[in-house]
Structure formats: C-alpha cells, structure tokens
Design goal:
GTP binding, six-stranded mixed sheet, single chain, Rossmann fold, G_IRG_dom, P-loop_NTPase
C-alpha cells in the first residue's frame, strides 16, 4: 500500500464506523418501534377486554328482553304474581330505613331490614307491604361498593326483574344514580328518585349552617322552632329539587319524579303518632306514587 492508499484508509475508516453505527442505530430504532407498537397494541386490547368485562351485559348492548328474563330467573319471580318495588342506590343512602318506615317498623324492631352502618345490606331481601295486597318491597345492596360496583350493579342485582325501581339518592344526584335511571328507562321500567333524609338535612342546615334562623341567636329554642317551621321545610325541599332538576335535564331524565321525604316522618305518619312529626315533606306524594304504579299495572 502506497502513501495514498494509507491516507485513504485513515480518512475513510471513521466514515465506515459512522455508517455502521448509523445502521446499528437504525436497526435498534426499528426494533424499538416494533416493540412499542406491540406494547401499544397489547394495551389497547387489554383496555377493550376490561371495558367488556365491566360493561353490564344485555341492556347496554341492546338485548333488553334477555336481560329482563335473566333478572326474573335470578329472583325466581313468577310474572303477574305480585308487584315488586326495588329499593336501589348508593350504600348508606337510607334504603333499608325507608323500607322499614313504609312497613311500619323502626330499624331496631324484629323483622326490620338491617339499616345500621355496620350491617349494610349485602343480600337481596324481599318484604311484604301490608298496605297493598301482593306487593313486595325488595331491599337491594348498595351501589358502588367493592362487592357491587356501579358498572355491573343493574345486572348483578337483577333490577330489570322489578316492576318499579325506587332510587335513593344523597343530597346531589350522582352519575351512578342517573345511570341506573337511564337503564330503567331503556326497558320502560317506572322509576323515581328519593331523598329520604330531609329531616336530617333541615337540622343540618339550621344547626351547622345557621340557615332559617333569620338573624336570631342559635339557642336550642330558636333552632327547634326553625326545624319545626313548615315554610323552611318547603323552602329546603324546593332548593334540593331544583338542583336535581338541573342534573336530570343534563341526562335526559326530566320526566323522572323526585320525592324529598323523611323516613322518620313516614313512619310516624303511617303507623305511630302523627302529632310527633316536626315537619312534613313529600311523604304522602311518594306513597301515592307507589300506589298509583300498582293500580296502573293491575289495570292493564
């Protein structure tokens, strides 16, 4: 090799190294791209699978008849034998307490549905309603718990089997409750929302927030007078129902009725001592709604 050949080899060697390095980098990049695409595909497929797993079957995918039939089998219901009200909604919203009140029982009495915080309902339990023949009140587990997640609650508790659903709600209407109402509407199932702790809401508004005292001091007497004031009860009821109305409209549920009641007042009004009722909310309207649903169903 002459001088020129030596010089050429010295100059071109780095170029070859750079080219080789570029080829290696390109190969690695291509491989990394393939791996990344494979990972992305795997993630997408996993997400689709998970979406299918949490999607309530039947009603969501357009098979209401099959879903209703499956729910009826789940609860061993004989069609036309009785009218069933299903009491659904989030845990600790007052389902069991309301159901007990309608049946004329206090929470601690024999035969009452379990309503204590430490004894939340985990099973579907049926109770007769003495007010009307062949009417069953069904106490359902709370929605949105680990045992009964919201996504599959409608199917897993067999809500489609009941002639009417009563959805207990908190002070605000949440996505879980509106989703249940939409599913009920999709199978033409009568449904209503119920806020059952209005006596507690009014007491909290007066004692904790100072509402309805109109500048008076927070004495026991003034607080008690404010809680017993029927005008205050009507005002708070309208305030809560107006807030619900906005949420219902957003979700296409404007036609679903809302009843603001006190489970305690319901019990006193129906079975105990009406003179002890401090304030009346919409207890009478809820009971009339329930009776109307039964009568309409039986007249078909």
């Amino acid at each position: 090799m002459g001088l020129w050949g030596f010089f050429k080899s010295v100059v071109t060697a780095p170029v070859k190294i750079v080219k080789k390095t570029a080829e290696v980098v390109k190969a690695v990049a291509n491989k990394a791209k393939e791996v990344a695409e494979a990972i992305i595909k795997c993630i997408e497929e996993t997400a689709e699978l998970l979406a299918e797993l949490v999607k309530p079957p039947g009603i969501i995918i357009g098979r209401p008849e099959e879903a209703i039939a499956a729910a009826i089998r789940l609860h061993n219901i004989v069609p036309s034998n009785a009218y069933h009200f299903g009491f659904a909604g989030p845990a600790k919203a007052g389902k069991s307490s309301l159901l007990n009140s309608i049946r004329g029982l206090q929470n601690f009495e024999d035969g009452a549905a379990k309503a204590l915080n430490t004894e939340c309902t985990y099973n579907v339990t049926k109770y007769p309603w003495k007010e009307m023949e062949n009417v069953i009140l069904v106490d359902l587990p709370g929605c949105g718990t680990r045992q009964f997640p919201s996504a599959s609650y409608f199917i897993n508790t067999g809500l489609g089997a009941f002639e009417c659903i009563i959805i207990l709600v908190e002070k605000t209407l949440r996505a879980d409750e509106t989703a249940l109402a939409k599913l009920s509407k999709s199978i033409n199932q009568p449904v209503c929302f119920v806020r059952s702790k209005m006596d507690q809401d009014l007491r909290d508004a007066v004692m904790n927030e100072g509402q309805y005292l109109e500048g008076q001091e927070r004495s026991d007497e003034n607080i008690e007078n404010a809680i017993r004031n029927q005008a205050n009860a009507r005002h708070l009821t309208k305030k809560i129902k107006d807030a619900f109305m906005e949420e219902k409209a957003k979700n296409g549920l404007s036609d679903i009725p809302v009843f603001c009641i006190s489970a305690t007042a319901t019990l006193l009004w129906l079975f105990k001592d009406p003179s002890k009722i401090k304030t009346v909310f919409e207890e009478k309207e809820l009971l009339q709604f329930m009776k109307n649903q039964v009568v309409q169903n039986r007249s078909r």
